[in-house]
Design brief:
By secondary structure, the protein is an alpha/beta fold. It has two domains: 11-171, 3-Layer(aba) Sandwich (Rossmann fold); 181-242, Arc Repressor Mutant, subunit A. 53% of the residues lie in helices and 12% in strands. The chain has helices spanning 11-21, 39-49, 52-55, 66-76, 91-102, 121-130, 142-153, 161-172, 181-184, 188-198, 203-210, 214-228, 233-242, and strands at 30-35, 57-63, 80-83, 111-116, 134-137, 158-159. The protein has a six-stranded parallel beta sheet with strand order 2-1-3-4-5-6, with helices on both faces. The longest helix has 15 residues, at 214-228.
Length: 246
């Protein structure tokens, strides 16, 4: 059963009162929805950036999966959505696709800023092609995140420094990248586990980084090996290295 607090839309905004509506110290104001499947992370982001009187950021809703995200975004129509790449129900790309279809005629654009633990090129390129205006990793500071949110609101493209190169390389070529049918068989979460395994992480380290259990990591690795018809993590590492996924 979904936690009734996961798809929170307007309670926080109503409680903030007229002071929140007035914006931050410099008069700027932006309405934001947080989309991430880890409630503790959303709580941390809310505590870091959601002091509207100081930052100008008003968090008007939260969601933990694709369906909740689409519901909250279409109900609140924020200026900016902070969007995790890996979500139950299809991932951030699916949120982008469904929101684009539902809000094609909206007068006020809703802009998306990906905020993810992943720094993989295919994740970055995937959400940018899906319509996101930027991509930053979860190592970003609160002050830099607030700045990135306002820049995206204003129509700028925002990237963590290392990630900008992925986008430039991808869009500099007029040829579309070749389709990798083997890689396409994997879910977003399986790709993330694959990449960490290939980088030499132990199962416990992967579980800690992705906020999942060791048993779940083992299940993902078994699924990856089966789908790719590989026998062990050494073959998996060679496979990932050959495709520059590490």
């Amino acid at each position: 059963m979904s936690d009734p607090t996961e798809a929170n839309t307007t309670a926080g905004a109503e409680a903030a009162g007229p002071e929140a509506a007035a914006g931050g110290a410099d008069g700027r104001h932006v309405r934001v929805v947080l989309v991430d499947d880890h409630r503790m992370f959303r709580t941390g982001v809310q505590a870091e950036i959601g002091q509207t009187a100081q930052t100008g950021v008003e968090v008007v809703g939260e969601a933990a999966d694709v369906d909740q995200a689409v519901t909250v975004i279409t109900a609140t129509r924020p200026e900016v959505v902070l969007l995790d790449v890996h979500l139950p129900g299809g991932g951030g790309v699916e949120v982008l696709r469904r929101c684009a279809a539902l809000m094609a005629d909206a007068e006020q654009p809703v802009r998306f800023l990906a905020l993810s633990v992943s720094d993989a090129a295919e994740d970055v390129i995937g959400v940018i092609r899906g319509g996101a205006r930027g991509y930053v990793t979860k190592t970003i500071t609160g002050a830099d995140l607030v700045d990135s949110i306002f820049r995206v609101q204003e129509g700028d493209a925002v990237f963590s420094p290392r990630l900008a190169g992925f986008v430039l390389d991808a869009f500099a070529s007029t040829d579309a990248p070749p389709v990798d049918e083997d890689l396409d068989r994997l879910t977003q979460r399986e790709r993330e586990v694959l990449r960490l395994i290939a980088r030499g992480y132990a199962y416990k380290e992967i579980a800690k980084q992705l906020f999942i259990s060791v048993k779940t990591v083992e299940s993902h690795v078994s699924a990856v090996l089966r789908k790719l018809q590989l026998s062990n993590r050494h073959e998996l590492t060679r496979w990932a290295t050959a495709r520059r996924l590490v």
